[in-house]
Every structure is written in C-alpha cells, then in structure tokens.
Amino acid sequence: MENGQVLRARARPGGPAPLLLQTVHEHRPEVGGISVLKARGTVDTCNALEFCKALADHIAHADQAAEHPLLDLTEVYLACAAAVRSLDRATGVLACSGRALPVVQPRPHVREALRTAGLPGVRVHATMASALETLASRSGGPDEPGGAG
Q1: Cβ-Cβ contacts under 8 Å for 71 (sequence gap 6 or more)
Q2: Which residues of 8-39 are buried (b: 16+ CB within 10 A; e: fewer)?
Q3: Sheet with strand 122-125: strands edge to edge
Q4: pLDDT tens track for 39-68
C-alpha cells in the first residue's frame, strides 16, 4: 500500500474515520532500511480484511527490499475483534519464523487490546526510538532485516 491510499470504511456523519495507509521508506544508521506503514483512522469489520492484506503486502515488500517492516498505529482506532484478528493474520508469517512486527505508538486502548490478545507476531513499542533500539540489538547489522526475534 503506497502513499496515502484510503481503504473502505463506513462513511456517515459521526461514524468511524476512514482508514488511510501510507508507506514511508527510510534509512537509519543503526538498523539500515526501514519501511513504516503509517495508519490513520478506524479499522472495523468493513475494512479489516483490506487492512490485513495491506499489512501482509507491506511485510512481504519490506522483506523483499531487505528492509525492516514497522507499523505506526499512532492515529488508529481498533473498533472490533476483527481488527485485532487482522493484525494476527497479517503477522503470522513473522510469528512462524520467530520474528515480530514492531508496532509503534499505539493509543492506550489499542495497546491494551494487543497486550490482551497476546499476538505472537506483534511487539508493541511506546516510541519509534524504542522500536529501532530493539531492531538494532536483534539485528546482525544494518543490512539484516528481521534478525532473530
């Protein structure tokens, strides 16, 4: 999902905010290439499957480009259990290989939902800096995405 594509969400006054996803590629000296999927809006039953696919594609593209995938949930509301399950499905490939997707800056209710769910393919970080520190400590160097998880 590249640069600001909007996924379907219910569009009604006072309803959930539409989901906007944007991918940002950066090079960080401590870890090398990173690919951050920045999400904004609401993940609900109307768009959970699309979110799952977009996140799975993001992870796959980052791996192909030898980048570390990250998910920024600073401005996301998870409206239902389907939203949490979509994260679990999308990160399953990471969990199977002993890795976890760094999820940065989730709102308190999102952090609690992820903690309660105990998703093996997700690791929550309060800040981008803490996520990068963890990646640097687990990686064999800037050119090795994922490292041992």
Answers
A1: 36, 37, 39, 55, 58, 101, 102, 103, 104
A2: ebeeeeeebebbbbebeeeeeeebbbbbbbbb
A3: 5-7, 19-28, 32-43, 68-78, 101-104, 122-125
A4: 999 999 999 999 999 999 999 999 999 999
